[in-house]
Amino acid sequence: MDLRVFWTDTARYQLEDIFNYYKLKASIRTAKKIVEKIIDKTLTLEKNQNIGQKEELLFERKNEYRYLVEGNYKIIYWIDGNYAKIASVFDCRQNPVKIEEI
Predict the structure, then answer these.
(1) Any alpha helices (H) in the chain, and if so which ranges?
(2) Does 92 have pLDDT greater than 80?
């Protein structure tokens, strides 16, 4: 079964923040490259929904959260019917406890 990738508002805003940060600190080219890699990584979910590991810090939630890693970022998602819903793009350089704020 092929899935469609859906980005929540939270995840889209985080992706935009990542772009804006690298645009200022590095260059537009670098910012685009990082964001494109993150987006491309999520496309692997279309064919294999269970490719990511379960997110241990979110085990107690109603949904089963999993994650993919791209560079310094955890792409946290859950499966909802025919959709892989991207909940968050979490910078792993932060305190891991912040994941629970999702």
Answers:
(1) 9-25, 28-42
(2) yes
